[in-house]
Amino acid sequence: MDNTKKLLKDYYHVDITSMSSQQGGWASLAYKVSSNQKSYFLKVYEKKRASTAKLTALIDKYVPIMVWLVHNSKLKGKIPVPLVTRGGEYKCEDEHGIYMIYDYIEGYTIGDQDVTEDQVRQLSEIIAELHLYSEDIPVETDGIKEDFDVPFLQSLRDIWNQRRCNFPNDVWNLVSPHIQQMEDLMHTIETLGQRLRNSNVRMALCHTDLHGWNLMQSEQQLIVIDWEGLKVAPVEADLMFLIDKPFFQEFLNIYQKTHHNFSINPDALQFYQGKRKLEDIWEFLEQLLWDEQNEEERVSTLNHLQEELKTLGK
Ligand SMILES: Nc1ncnc2c1ncn2[C@@H]1O[C@H](COP(=O)(O)OP(=O)(O)O)[C@@H](O)[C@H]1O
Ligand SMILES: [Mg+2]
């Protein structure tokens, strides 16, 4: 705690008196830290993790857009923005990690629970509002614009083409029966990507990671958190998370009050669904091959990978 205490004091003028570990997502560590006045949510991206560079590279691109949204759209109070350091930055770092702090949201995370009618309505209103904005807002959006390029596909191919000498047997045995399926899906994604790049599909601000662990309920308000995937993209990048849900029609009815003639673009939907599947597989492999994991974490990642590989044929 001493390190963190000093860091928060130096960068944010916040004097913390307590700190407790919280269940974070898989990408970062999370803490509740409190001063005598209030509580904060501290997110720590450890530098030793393979995913950190990619996840934190865009902080300075997406946070200013969120700040603009909070001041210029109906999203105030519905999305969290990080606190600013004394130097006017949205993050700070030391040799161990990259740190961001937010006001602590008192409430609960939806996670795997069913959502209520009211939550569906609020979610639909938030996403409909978000999708009203695009690259014409007066904040730079170039760094987060979808280009339909999927760079991790090459890395994924390299993995089995080179079969790196340190490829562990258990991982290889799991992956190798599915390589053809993955090759086929990669080819489909690349073809769709090319088609979308040459089309004039409408793009809007999208969250791109809309699942229950990124939704919190605080008193009467639903809050959408974890905006590190913010993009200017076809709206299917968000709707793909909702389309298979039992409440999708209800969601769509409310969404269409704002976006009157909206209909799903099947190419964009298929592109994002396939990309997500391959990205999950890639990230699990990345953890298994390059991250330091204990036995329990490793078994859990292997199970997740196996589950994901099974869905490839579907
Ligand atoms: N401001 C906050 N206040 C309280 N809890 C939060 C806050 N932000 C996130 N959380 C909790 O921490 C978890 C992980 O945060 P999230 O931003 O989604 O990180 P990750 O990128 O690791 O998924 C969330 O599922 C939620 O339970
Ligand atoms: Mg999350």
From TrEMBL:
Pfam families assigned: APH (PF01636)
Family matches, as InterPro entries: AGP_Transferase, Aminoglycoside_PTrfase, Kinase-like_dom_sf
Q: Which UniProt keywords apply?
A: Transferase
Q: Which GO terms describe its molecular function?
A: transferase activity
* Residue intervals of the Aminoglycoside phosphotransferase domain: 24-257
Q: What name has this protein been given in UniProt? A: Aminoglycoside phosphotransferase family protein
Q: Which species expresses this protein natively?
A: Brevibacillus panacihumi
